[in-house]
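From: lab user (bench 3)
To: helpdesk
Subject: output format question, protein + protoporphyrin IX containing FE

Hello, I'm new to running complex predictions and I'm not sure whether the block I got back is the full result or only part of it. Here's what I submitted:
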Amino acid sequence: MKGIGFAFFALGVLCALIGMAWGIQMSATANHALSPAHAHLNLIGWVTMALMGAYYTLTPAAASTRLAKIHLALTTAGVIIIVPGIVMALTQQGETAAKIGSVLTIAGMICFGVNVLRHGLGAKTAP
Ligand code: HEM
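Helpdesk reply: Thanks, we reran it on our side. This is the complete output you should expect:
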């Protein structure tokens, strides 16, 4: 088992690859209409998830909790739903998916905040 830090980084890299390919496609077609969705895929999916992965790698006590797994599930579901949700909102197809994705994403961040407050930063060292 490679751990929760690895899972956050692996999913983050996947989001970055899709987000960057999307950016290249936007540039090549000179159609930037969906750039807010591209930005959220890169910023939540890549930047935020990589930061979370770095935290869990530095803080093994937090990484081994059930809350960390719930956090990973909520954040992953959040990205998967919010990005198409933003596309739908931008193309006048409704805002429900964007709203659901937003709630999942903030719920993940709340789990992260609780883990940070409970476990602090870094590996515990013997006194
Ligand atoms: C191969 C890499 C990338 C390419 C080719 C690319 C391309 C683009 C393009 C064409 C736009 C629209 C610009 C405009 O309409 O003015 C854009 C917007 C944006 N991109 Fe990227 N991008 C890339 C990677 C990233 C990454 C890694 C991030 C964040 C970590 C990012 C964040 C943003 C943001 C915040 C915007 C502005 C969105 C908005 O104003 O609604 N991009 N990108």
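A quick orientation on your result: The chain has one domain: 4-119. Let us know if anything else is unclear.
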